[in-house]
Amino acid sequence: MGTLSLLVFSPFIGLIALLLAGKQSDNITKRIAAFSSLIPLILSILVYAQYQAGSGLSEILRWVQFEVGEQTLTLNYELAVDGFSVILILLTTIIAVLAVFTSSWQIKQNSHLFFMLMFLLEFGILGVFSADNLILFFIFFEITLIPMFFLIGKWGGTDREESAFSYIIYNGLGSMVLLIAIAAIFVTAGTTNFSEAAEYFRTSNEAGLQLGIAIAFLIAFGVKLPIFPLHSWMVKVHVHAPPALVMIHAGVLLKIGAYGLIKFGVGILPASFTTLAPLIAILGLVNLLYGAYLALVQEELRSVLAYSSISHMGIILLGVAALNEAGIQGAIFQSVSHGLISALFFLLVGILLVRTRTTNLRKLSGLARLTPVLAGFFLVAALAGLGLPGMSGFVSEFTVFLGIFENMPVIGAIGTLGIIMTVVYMLRAILKMTYGTYRNMFGDMNDLGMGELIPATILLICIVVIGVYPNTIALTVQQTLETLLVGIGG
Amino acid sequence: MTTIPLQAYLILALILFCIGLFGALTKRNTIIVLICIELMLNAVNLNLVAFSQLGNNPGITGQVFSLFTITIAAAEVAVGMAILIAWYRHKNGVNVDEMDGLKD
Amino acid sequence: MIEFAWLIPALPLLTFLLLIVLREKLKKASGYVAVLISGITFIVATLVFLQLIDVGNFLMEWSWLTIGSIDISFGILLNPLNGLMLLLVAFISFLIHMYSLGYMDGDQRFSTFFAYLSLFTSAMLGLVMSPNLLQFYMFWELVGLGSFLLIGFYFYKNSAKQAAKKAFIMTRIGDVGLLIGLILLFWQTNSLRFVDIYQAVTNGDMSGGMITLIAILIFIGAIGKSGQFPLHTWLPDAMEGPTPVSALIHAATMVAAGVYLVAVMYPLYMASSLAMMIVAIVGAFTAIYAATIGLVQNDLKQVLAYSTISQLGFMMLAMGVLGYTAGIFHLFTHAFFKALLFLAAGSVIHAVHTQNIKEMGGLNQKLKLTSAVFLIGALAISGFPLFSGFFSKEEILASVWAEGQYGLFIIAIVAAFLTSVYMFRLYFLVFHGESKLTLDKVKPVPMTMKIPMMVLALFAIFSGFFNTSWFGTYIADFLEEGATYLEGIHHGSSIWLMLLATVVSLGGIALAYLIYVKNALNQENWKTSGTYQMLLNKYYMDEFYDNTFVKGSRGIGLGFQYVEKYFVRLIILFIGDLVTTFSRTGSKSQTGQAQTYTAVAFLGLVLFAAVYMLKGGY
Amino acid sequence: MDIQTLLSFEWGMMAPEFTILIVGILLSLLDLFGKDTWKKSLPWLAVGGVGVAIIFLLFQYGHGDISILGNTYVFDSFAFYFKLILLIATLLILLMVISRTVQQEVRDRGEYLYLLLAALLGGMMVASGGDLISLFVGLELLSLSSYIMVGLRKRDVRSSEGAMKYLINGSIATAFTLFGMSYVFGLTGSTKLVDIAREMSGSLGSGEPVAIIGFIIMFVGLAFKISTVPFHMWTPDVYEGAVTPVSAFLSVVSKSAGFIIIVRIFWGIFGNATFGGSDTLFATMIDFIAVLAFLTMFIGNLVALRQRNMKRLLAYSSIGHAGYILIPLVSLTPVSLENIWFYLLAYAFMTIGAFMVIYILEQQKQSEDISIFTGLYRESPALAIIMTIFLASLAGIPGTAGFIGKFNIFVGAVAADPAQYILAGTMAVMTVVSYIYYFNIMVQMYIRKPQLEGTTKIARLQSVPLILCVAGTIGLGVFPFIALNFFH
Description:
- The structure holds 4 protein chains of 4 kinds.
- Helix content of chain A is about 80%, strand content about 5%.
- Chain A is mainly alpha-helical.
- Chain A has a domain of about 220 residues.
- In chain A, a hairpin with a 2-residue loop joins β1 and β2.
- The chains are: A mainly alpha, B mainly alpha, C mainly alpha, D mainly alpha.
- Chains A and C meet through α13, α15, α18, α19 and α21 of A and β1, α6, α7 and α25 of C.
- Chain C: It holds the Pfam family Proton_antipo_N.
């Protein structure tokens, strides 16, 4: 078993430990969960180091064979990482640790089951980013559905069951479309390995089929990302799921959409994506502005953040549509950056909810008075979200716009309206909460304790480090970028 | 003796089958329904025997087949009657349209 | 020493981090820490500047962001222009740190204030040292952040909250212009380094139309930051921040960054006469527009704010008519006298706890020093002969005249006249006449506030002599040393212009004296006039924006909310209903009648056969 | 046919059938004349018999194709693999019967056993039938035994009602099948599949309409067995009326037998019949069957949304699954048979498993309503997790056999010529619809709180079929190559 397999299956250590421990007292359960969540983190750092050192991490194991006519189709268990995925893996493990830590004070009941499902979810996500063929990718992709369903449905807010069903239906549809596309690739290319499939489609001339598959990818990952008008589920999840879960959901799960679009869409079918680029650009623009304007009129912080996510995902789409080095790198950066920022946001939302039990903007005001540190963090998160230089959001937005302006300056110019609107809605929401007069509605509130301060600071440091010196991750993704660019022919 | 053409048998069988089906679908009394099903099976037998004699490759197989059919039809009615009796004990009736306890 | 130039922005950043983390522990001491470090920063800056005079140019770069084949770097650039700015910013920042020690004394968030102030200083210093446009842009935004944080320092006040938000958004609008401009520039020149850009312009790598477009887009950034029309409305509101902040950010340094930006990109502007024209016109219009508003405002700081806008307009005007050195020179002198005016205003506010000039009067009795330095500032800004403003403003007028823009020249003269009028209106109303305040309300001004004012007063008087046709054009020479493209556009001044400037300045003062001291004109008559109301309401620009852009955006948002509710949701509901309907129908057909079941099956068979026959022709 | 030829047949190939037959007869005799004390061990005899039959069958693995008794009994790989499914499924159902804890109707017990075996024998005959007569007789053996099994719970009116409905519908379907068969016989003059295929592969000429009528009518009759729309309506009523193991039997064994006979007849005969010059007759009918597949998936899954009775729910779900299995039937790729087989195998494990869980809960709570699952995770986490595995597999979540089965079908549908994108798309959408009702059960188990606090225990005997089904579901999901390689 290679390091990668070890990493992918490492969340099972926590799961099994919890299973064996049985229903202990809450404290013990939480301690076990917290400690075992560190294992994947350590392993992912190891994987990152190995990747940087240039050692091969790929693994392969024969799994299933089909014989269709004279063709033999082989399905393998194969894992590999590239620069993009290794960063997302790192992001996943970091956010997972923080989410587990923070949920220990948010989750009051059934924490045993909660943590087990969290580990299962982490397993799925790590698998998604480590898989080296489409089937395996899909399998892990689907595995994330079940824990998410329960985590939303059992520990969510008021509309938790509805949200959970909405989640499962939308994502189920998306994944089924993906499955058909994968089956089509499997049958035509005879493989689902990323690089082999890319190689096949480079020389084949089935333009119609390729375009069909590309559109299927766009829909499938469009649900996940999400792309307007497939976004309703995501708003519900943002609002009703427990904040610790949304950290993972907004932080990592949505990124699967971006990851898929870039790695499969652009990676396997560059020609079709070039054809689709204008459409993707327009969709990106719609996302960007639609999300931004909606975020402006929400009265619930979590809805603001949900629409803000939609808006930010629009930027990823714009980057993908640009189909040049800057655009794609920008999309990659935006994935990571938005992951960190929304994780920070929902960490803070969780902290806030423990104190106020509401995130309604009408009820909140002047939080900076009693909890200046919390308010400060909210403000910093908002600034990061609106793309302030020195934080990761700026680098990604700049890079995306740099990319889109090369090919589609008009789209880019309209898109910059989104940059302005982001400021408007972010400041509106955050200032409404933190600034203004304090109305004593929630009694005494403590400012952040150490256990809350440390996770928030870790995320903030990540955001700032990427913002101040983006080459920390830029150099890692260069190889991925090169591979993709070969396909685009740029 | 002029042979009756094959088509005549076939059409008769078809008519018989349709009568049987019509009865099976419309009659309220379960016993009559069962009898109508017998009628349908007999239409089959007629077909088989006719084909056996006048078909493309005449042979004994068709008649053998019809023997099996008759046997099984008998078994079916027997089972049917048994079940019907069990039903009768509960409901004191044999009307098929009263069997609507199981539905959505 | 020059290798340690990176310390200049790094030191205040360190202060920021230190103070924000340890703000509970340091409390009172944080002020001294901040002042100390900003002092050191100033010393380093001075040393660097002195060395720079010898060296001329200095560049240090590190790779910052790699995007495939594109490599964007980060670094430090020192040349005469930004050396001068560096010194200016470090100096004024140091003074204002010191002033704040007294002004902010007793505030609950004393440490936080200094942290923010340091953050701003750091960003501003980083801005002026940027060797490329992207880095420039980043610090450009960060100074905006500093400004935002400080404007909203009194977070519990709703007006402060709104003002902070407005400042951030309005400048962001400008910034987007800059961002587009710099991205377009990148795809034209494949680099964001200033040197490469200059090179590309000189080599004629870009089409004229593109240069104009980029220049205008970049100018939009400058408009936003420098409070030029039509993106000026945030600047008066920004006065919600503590007064030292207004002095540092919204008078002396940050708002001047727009002018600095135009100066930095000057080769680009020089290549496009249309862009230059636009800069000049916007500058001139803003100068007179803001001056007219400044005439009637009753808030002490508001008047100063409009005055700042107006003066920035002058600078832009200078830039637009090839008066590069004139613009920078005015920026330089303006920094001193406007900072001085704000600090003086601050000490007034500190003493009397109001900003309404109608409630003031006769304060020259109680606040002697303040009154004196305010007068110096007012004289300087009005262009009173031999004060610093006189020289710089005269040079601007000379540039305008030399370019033959007579229309703009007249506007500039009128604006200069109005400047003296509103400044002395302010002076007379605040410091002369009867005192309307009870005397015990006036607090003494502490030493930490007095020293910076006195230092600035000195500079307000004498800084003009750094660049005069009488004693030598040191600044102009120094600047031209680093910018070869400026050769041959030196505008000499003439005696008649100086006389004209003097007359205008004295005339304005005299008019103000007549109206506000002698009450020669009936003021009550104007107050009902439409013009007065229009000026008082700032030409209704805020209302205009509120009714168009703000409400418009919200309207679009609500519109989308409807789309969300009635389109997206309705589709989902429709599909849901469809599913339910099918489901219910299917379920209902399950009647429990065995014969129905078979009948349905038979119907299926019939359909099956019928369709087949229709299709197959049997 | 003299004694010499009779003896020369490889009777050994029929060993599994003989085993079942002998055990069945033995059971009926022992049940009639045996002492009451023996009766307790009767079920084990049945299990042992099926086990021995499986072993016999496995010995035949890799044996070449033969046909004995004048081509009426055929042993080929097709028969081998599908018989295996029937045997395994029956074994699981027998274990389910044994596990019964509440002994309401002790006297029926023996009857269930030998009826089950008789039905199984019918199914196996169908799998090996090489002659219309033997196919028909096998099918009827299966059907008649099923009618009785459904009706065996004499004291329950629902049981009698279900049985009666099943019988009426089933008999009419039989009549249809026979009617169709009679035409096919008439056209070719033979009942042996090989002969019919040979006859039909020539030009049918004026016989074409007859062949088509035969095809349609026969298909309708057999579609009843696999409950495709519109011949599905009996399914939920009968499942509800029968005892749960019998429902499971109908849903798995009877349905598998239906697919077996359809594949045998339609691929075997009509797949070779030329039609209109170029296409085979079956190929021209593909569009129609595709429409049926579409409707079956559509109605099965949609109506399942409204069900609260668990057995009815599974009945509709099984209709939906029948729709999925029709896709490889019309795709006509080299992997189609493999896909059908794998799906039926996976389906056997997961469906029997789900019925088993329902059976356990139904006995403890005396209800079949979905509310028996409410709060199950609290009462018995193990049972809840096991049920989750079955539901996940039914829903086609990766890691389970159901996913591999579905994926295979997708691959087959896309690989087909022309590619069946519409059917694949329908299957995809309906799979998502099925998520709703499967996940709703999970919601009941994990998220809702139980109305009454109590514990649900799994008896030792009950755990046996559960473990086997879980092993099958997960095993086929994680190591599908074991089954797939075995199939090659």
